[in-house]
Structures are given as C-alpha cells and as structure tokens.
Amino acid sequence: MPSQSKTLTRQQAAKAPRMRAASLTNFNASERTARLSFASETPVRDYWYGKEILRVSDSSMNTERFIAGVMPILFNHDRDKVIARVDNIWTECSKAYADITFDDDELSERILKKVESGSLRGVSVMYNIQNYSIIERDETSADGIEGPALIADKWEVLEISIVSVPADAAVGVGRSRLYSPDVFRDMGDGAGAEEAEETEVEKPNPDGGERSAELQEEKNNYEGEEKEMTPEERAALAAEARTAENQRQSNIRALCRELKIEEKDMEAMLKDEDCTMEKANERALAILKERMKPTAPPKVTVTQDEADKKRTAIVDGLFLRHGGILEKPADGADEFRNCRFADVARMTLQDAGETGIGRMTDRELFARALTTTSALSAIADNLAHKSLSSGYNEVATTYGAWTQTGSNTDFKIAKRYRIYDAMAPVKIPEGGEFSYSELLDESVGVQLATYGDATNFTREMMINDDLDVLVKIPKLLRTSMERYKNHLAYKALIDANNYSSAKGNLGTAAALSVKSLGEAKKLMRKQKLGNNTVLNIVPKYLIIPAALETVAEQLLTSTADPEGKNSGVSNPANRTRSNLELIVDATLDELSGETAYYLVATKGMVDTIEVCYLNGNAAPIIETGTDFNNLGINFRMYHDFAINVLDTRGLVKNAGK
Q: What DSSP line would sit under 170-185, residue for residue?
C-alpha cells in the first residue's frame, strides 16, 4: 500500500462500502424484467465484529438514491456499464426486494441474453451502513442479540450489479464483506507488515479473552474523533479490496486445478474470506493426505432428495402425533411421531453441520436453528400447509354446490354483463338492410376484497412443544374462512332486494308442498327477456333450512303425493321426475327463518350468484416468515374473493308458513 494510505479503524470498517450476494427471481425475457431479493436479517460472520445483522424495514433501509433516480443496475459494479433501471424497491417480511427492467442498448441486450441462457445469474448489491449499534462480547441487546455483533440500524443501497463472479454463490440471499482481512491489515501508515498488524486495534480476540488495556484505551481515545471517509477514499478502498479479493480467488483456483482439488472444496476456500494462500495450501495438503489413504471409506453425503424425504417424514410424523389423519403417510413418518419440536430443531442443526448442539439449552437450540438454517422454518411451513388443506376437506359448507365461480385478475371493479332486454328480431326483405337496435349496457360491478388472520409460533411455544399453532390453528383458520364464505353466499341469496312480485320471482307464501313448489318452478320458467321472450329457465337446486329437511326429503323421494287422499295420486315433485337437487344448510335457519325456501337455476343457463376469486385461486394463501426480533415464526392466512348477485331471474323465493 502507498505510504499515504490510512489506518483503518473498527468504526471506519463499519461504515465502509460492503457487498452482499442477491438472488435473481421471476426473470421474464419478453418483458425484460426481473425481481431481486437482496437483503434479510439473517446474521452473518463479520471479521471485525463477530457477526453483522441488517435491520430490514422501510424505516431502516435508505432508498433516497432510488427516489432520486440515481440507483443504477450495473454490470460487475462498473459505473460506466449501466444495464437496467430499478422500477420498485421495498421491504416485506424482513426481506428487501427490487424490480428491475433491462435497457435496450447493445451491452444491456448482451447481458440479458446471458441471464436468459443461464450462463450469467450472479447478482450482488453494494450498500453503506449509516447508523449502527455495537454489541460487545458478553453483552446482549434489548431484543436478545448476543455480542459480539454489529447491528446496522440504518443503511443505504448504493447500486445493484449483475456480476460474473458473485460475492456468495450460495442459493438465496447471503451477505459477504467487500473486503478481506488481508486488505485491512495492509492499510497502515507506510509501515511494514508487522507495524501494520499493530494498527488492528479493534480486531476481535479469537480466544475469547479480554482485549489488552492498551488496545481498549486506543479504542476509547478514538471515540468521538471518527471522520467520515470521502467518496473518493471509499471508491479507492473498494477498488483495492476488489483487486485483492480477485487475486486471492485466482490464486486459489490455480492451486486447486493444479492439484485436482474437488470443486466443492475449492468453493469452500473461495467463500472463506479468512482463507489466505497459506491456509489454502494447508487445506489442499490435508485433502491430498486424506485422498491417499488406502483404506479411507467413501464420504457419504445426504443428497437433496434424501433431505426432502426426511423433511416430509418429519412433517407427517408431527402431523399424526397431534391428531392429523393421513391416508398414506410418508415413509419413515412413524420414526418421528414421538419427536418433540426441540428434537426436530436439533436434527436440522446436525444436518447443517453445526457443532456443540448437545450442550445447548432448548432456548439456545431454537435461537440457533431459526437464525442459521431455514430447515426448521420450512418444516413448520409445510406442517401448517398440511393442516390448512385438511381444514378444507373437513368443513361442512354447501355454497359451492349452487353458486357460480368467477375470476378477476386484479382488485379493480370488473363488469359482468347480464342478458339484456333486446328488441325482437326483425324480418329483412330481399335486398333489405339491417336495422340496428340500441344495446343496453346492463352489468354488475364485481370488486375483490381481502380477508385474513394471523398468528405467531413463538420460541416459548416451541420450547413447550405446543404444536397446536402449527397443526390445529391453520386448520381452524381454513374452516373459519370457508364458513365465512358460506355465510356470505347465503346472505346474498336471501337479500330481500332479489325478490318481488314485479320481478316475478316471489311465490305466494305457503308451506313447502307439491303445490307451492310447482308455483315456484313455474315462476322461474316464465322469466322473460324483455316483454315477450320467455327464457324457460330450468330450476336445479331446492335450497332449504334444516327445519324443512325431513319434509323436503319426503316430498322429493315419495312416488305418491304426500298430501294426496290416497296412494294412487302420483307425486310430480318426485326427484326422479323433477330432477331437483336438495341442498340443506342451517345457515338459512339463522338468516331467514325456518320456513322460507329457494329455487336456484341450473348453472350456466343464467347468471345467479357468483363467488369470484383473484386469478381463480379458490384456496386461501398461508405465508410464513421468521420473526427475528422475537425468535419466532409468523403465520398469516388471507384470501381474496367477492360474492355478488349477478342476475335474479334464476332465483325464486317462497317465504313459507
């Protein structure tokens, strides 16, 4: 390093530009768009502070550059190679996202093609910590973060790059320091390596002991005197760091290729920022010694397929243990039926290669499992989804049998056009011209709404092995949602505005009988299009309250008229002759009393009542996310739907007696 370079302190290291790897998802080549997930609150190892944690929320992530229109998408962090723009940037569930659109110049087109082919998928983001908190060793923050740790309370997104060599090639979001420890050690005041080493006044003690009094005093003297680096100094620092890191990776790759070191071992060295060439040589030598052992057993690795099978077996075992019913449980599910959730957390940590698990308390165990691996959260998510599905199968609702199903693509008001009262056809003489009738715009507006609920699976519940939140609560949420839709559908059916003598669909109030049912069927068939055209609508569903179930069953199944004076009088309401389908729902007893009954037309013949969903999704959506502040797992279920009366000509009511 040149003699004029600065000594880098802990405080300067905290505010130096950093990089993280990001994941590119939802790539659409035709639209030239992609979505990036580039930040989360997962702790990562930090050279100076033990671990680094980003607060990811709208208040902690500074997006002023995006708002000002100066946050570009670059290629390989080169300021002169702008390839896309950022359309939107936001935080959701403690993660940060960005939507981008590629430019249409030659360079951008070339990068887009490489992304489309899969040969270029690396993404990294440069960011700058503006406000931070330091948790020292043996200290704990108010929200339970144990030191040593650096917490970025406020940070700024500088730019995002499509890169040929990402900072971290792991799947998903993972942060990595822009600089390696070697770069920091070289930033002395022109002194030699040994003297530069002495300037590392803030390096953590790897043995866990106290810092020397001299180093602590130097730190205390520095407090309050820190000066912000200039943009030029930051840029120079970043360029030097990239050069050093690229050289380190190039040297390690050359070494591994020469010695034929396996790809996974080479990648492990590349990702380890503390792996200098000296350490890489030591690792390579150890790998060669292991390889040359004549009796060395083959290394057994758990494939992804095996991991998925194990996870499925764990989910089914826990589901069965807590009263769930499965027609065909996954292989091995019985092995996990007696497991506590703490046992599951321990297994996920063991599979992830964590050490020292046997000495952990349950509280420490769940804290580690929720912050170092996503496996435990995935198991909880799968368990909740399985319970959610069972809730739909077991709920007793009837609205789906007689209502129509619709779909909207968004939350705007959509029109449903009804059969309008058009004029009668007109005879056209030979050589005559068509006459044009005015089309009447009869339509109903349909607008979706969102309904939902949420709960939390806290660490205390995990420790207490209280899995009701995962097994029973999602099921109850789903059944509650289905019952609510059932209630709204019947509320729409009984609406008094649907029926009147003027509409011709309100029968003479009478008890359910052959006569009153015959009148109701006649009213529906005689519904008209305009003043003259009879629609001849066929009734299909006889919908009654629970109080009329026995009477209706007798009426529809008896071959003789139940009210006839002798058995020789046939029953025209018999189901085999009338083709009526009986639907009984006790919701009607509460909403419209125990005597009123309704006829609904055959689906497709005429519009009646529609249950409309967003993009046709008839099932509620359940989402999970790790709650970093409370070390728990959040669950929320929501459903986007609307229930509307489209046309009343396929509905008939009799208030009964």
A: SSS-EEE-SS-HHHHH
End-to-end CA distance of the chain: 98
**Phi and psi at residue 136, to the nearest 5°:** -75, 165
How far apart CA 473 and CA 633 sit, in angstroms, is: 14
User: What are the C-alpha distances in Å from 265 to residues 121, 131, 198, 244, 268?
Assistant: 22, 37, 33, 21, 5
Among the listed residues 620, 577, 617, 582, the one whose alpha carbon sits nearest the alpha carbon of residue 401 = 582
* Spatial distance between the Cα atoms of 655 and 657, rounded to a whole number of angstroms: 7
Q: Any idea which of 17-21, 183-187, 479-483, 492-496 has the lowest mean pLDDT?
A: 183-187
pTM above 0.70, yes or no: no
- Residue 397: pLDDT over 60: yes
DSSP per-residue letters across 583-595: EE-THHHHHH-SS
pLDDT in tens, 275-296: 888 788 888 888 877 776 655 4
* CB distance 274 to 211 below 8 Å: no
What's the Cα-to-Cα distance from 516 to each of 358, 505, 522, 562, 654, rounded to whole Å? Answer: 76, 13, 10, 13, 8
For the chain, what percent of residues have pLDDT higher than 70?
A: 73
pLDDT of 546: 94
The whole-number pLDDT of residue 294 equals 54
User: By the 8 A CB rule, do 83 and 111 touch?
Assistant: yes
Helices 263-271 and 277-291, packing angle to 10 deg: 160
- H or E element: which one contains 79? strand 78-92
Count the neighbouring beta carbons within 10 Å of the beta carbon of residue 441: 9
* Farthest-apart Cα atoms in the chain, separation: 118
User: What's the rounded Cα separation, in Å, for the pair 177 and 46?
Assistant: 7
Rounded CA-CA distance 645/406 in Å is: 12
At which residue do the structure tokens 């034929």 appear? Answer: 260
Residues 444 and 415 sit within 8 Å (Cβ to Cβ): yes
pLDDT value, residue 168: 42
The pLDDT of residue 83 is above 90? yes
The sign of the dihedral angle between the CA atoms of 480, 484, 485, 489 is: positive
**Which pLDDT value is given to residue 562?**
65
Find out whether 363 and 349 touch, Cβ atoms under 8 Å: no
Helix/strand/coil (H, E, C) string of 496-558?
Answer: HHHCCCCCCCECCCCCCCHHHHHHHHHHHHCCEECCCEECCCCEEEEEECHHHHHHHHHHHHC
User: How many residues comprise the chain?
Assistant: 657
- Number of other CB atoms surrounding residue 292 within 10 Å: 8
Cα separation values, 375 from 5, 131, 219, 344, 631, Å: 45, 32, 40, 10, 15
User: Could you tell me where the DSSP H helices lie in 16-105?
Assistant: 64-68
Which tokens sit at 393? 């199968």
Q: What is the pLDDT of residues 123-153, one digit of tens each?
A: 888 888 888 888 888 888 887 888 888 888 8
